[in-house]
Amino acid sequence: MVAPLKVGIAGLGTVGAEVVRLIESQGRALSARCGRGVRVVAVSARSKAKKRGVDLRGIEWAKNPLALANDPKIDCFVELMGGSGEPALSAIEAALRNGKSVVTANKALIARHGSRLAALAEKHGGALNYEAAVGAAIPVIKTLREGLAGTGINRVYGILNGTCNYILTRMEREGLSFAECLKDAQRLGYAEANPSFDVDGHDTAQKLAILASLAFGTKVNQSAVYVEGISSIAPEDLRAAEELGYRVKLLGVAVRTESGIEQRVHPTMVPKSSSIAQVMDVTNAVTIDGEGIPPITLVGPGAGGAATASAVLADIADVARGIRAAPFGRPIEKLKTTTKAPMKRHEGGYYIRLMARDLAGTAATIATRLAEQKISIESIVQRHPDGAVEPVNTRGKPSPVPVILITYATTEDAVRQALHAVQQDRVITGRPQVIRIEKN
């Protein structure tokens, strides 16, 4: 009879308490699937007195996470405290140095210290599993690391933040502003009181850095990701996207190019016919383009206590089975260093919305500046707001008219230079709105 896997859990918030409950309720099924039992023998949390809705009788309390990581009684250290630094980092390092396996849901820590922790796991023989760090219940880590180990990956991209997807969904469906939808998301608990980490794209960037490492064999480097958020998106952009056959999503995209691995997070127009365009509200999705196979799209809950705990338990089950995959799919010495790819080299189609002055020669000037940068236009839409024949501002002068352009594939540098020249010509007002287009 194989001895049960003895688990220590640091952090008993929503996810940690749910993991304890699942191990208790799924005990027999886990034993059958893994060939051995799984038991929580010790925990660590800030407050021992706090009610957590799970039975912790018979489970030892460690005085702190580091003491738990050094406890010789546990085989598997589960870190659910969060944060890119202490105490999570020291506790995980101690567990790995002791030859223990580690399971974590901590995307910030993996994005910042993943390569360093992988080296420790490799040196001391433990597993480092982090399925819950990206996409919660969506098994994208195992898919890239194990399921597609024999497939060359060309591109991986996805909706990796439920808060942003919820806001963009509400804006599209109800014609609301970003500020209105953000306020409602905060009221419903989908957005934090300080939402910048989500809406400015940094949460997505951390997750994308991890996926890029797995897909392309690079060291995790969040600083190599270009990041834009969604606060500049306006209802008129979503209406235009609808008319043109697109939908706007905040995507994290990592793609192999001739000049290296391009990693970027920004609002993106995707064809409405694509799988990822159908993913609405707080749901997450990841699409993987591999050599010789059609694109694979994984869709599911990307956050939440139950979904995250499910992924944590799957990682614990792998430890119980004795599975030891290289944390990033390759030995640490084989991972390549990557740097931030200049966005000016990015190639693709663009949506451009300009507020053009209603003056003779404006259209010709815009066309000339685009032609100078060899930018070809796929479509152009010009309309007066609200269908008015001749909109007039309060001073009795014609108001600027929205002009929407869709370009064929061009470079970011060309678009920036053309728009800078148009602004210098003073034929538009305000700042041009630019959204990149991601084809299937």
UniProtKB/TrEMBL annotation:
Single GO term (MF): homoserine dehydrogenase activity
Pfam families: Homoserine_dh, NAD_binding_3
Chain residues that bind NADP(+): A10, G11, L12, G13, T14, V15, G16, A17
Residues engaged in binding L-homoserine: E192
Class of the enzyme per the UniProt entry, highest EC level: oxidoreductase
Keywords, in A-Z order: Amino-acid biosynthesis, Methionine biosynthesis, NADP, Oxidoreductase, Threonine biosynthesis
Record-listed NADPH binding positions: K107
Active site: K207 (proton donor)
Pathway given in the UniProt record: Amino-acid biosynthesis; L-methionine biosynthesis via de novo pathway; L-homoserine from L-aspartate: step 3/3; Amino-acid biosynthesis; L-threonine biosynthesis; L-threonine from L-aspartate: step 3/5
EC annotation from Swiss-Prot or TrEMBL: 1.1.1.3
Signal peptide: none
One GO term of the biological process aspect: methionine biosynthetic process
Acetylation among keywords: no
Domain ACT: from-to ranges: 351-433
UniProt similarity note: Belongs to the homoserine dehydrogenase family.
Protein name, per record: Homoserine dehydrogenase
Source organism per UniProt: Afipia broomeae ATCC 49717
